[in-house]
Predict the structure.
Amino acid sequence: MRIYVDFDDVICETAKHLASWANEQYGTNIEYEEIRWFDLRRSFKLEESRYLEVMEYAHHDAILSLYPPTPGAVDTMSQWQQRGLHATVVTGRPATTREASRKWLAQYGLEQTPLICVDKYRREPPPPPGVEPALTPEEFAALRFDVAIEDAPAALDLLANSSCGKIIIFDRPWNRDYVAPDSRFTRAANWHDIASKL
């Protein structure tokens, strides 16, 4: 079984960290449950310059290492490895974060887990020389997964047009209004719930 697992807010707690940082940096009072949109400009009520600051901060190598694992994610993925299930981390992070993202996986004993960068949101700039570019959505469509675990509505739409047999929506405040387009979609509240579905 081939399993697609998103990175941010599926195996690590990115939004909680960024909300806390934005509150300290800008004097805002953003509660995690108030992050109703995947677009942080809208959820954090940020002007463009501050949004760009947040995104630069979010993807800095030293900051990526600080995101704590989502409870149950590391244990479940380790158990999958032992059972012979093939999980691949499929992230929408910029291609320039590939090595820092691999280091995060290694930090938690998941160094054998493959990592693929995909321009899920069609916002990836051309990478600097020597950096392998992220896959385009069209290139990603050629890959085959039996199960996908994702939280971002735009990425869920991308998966809706794929051949993936089961798509698990990892419940987050910004996807609670997402309407599943077909019967392949199911929702999971946490990693225990995910494990019970496989």
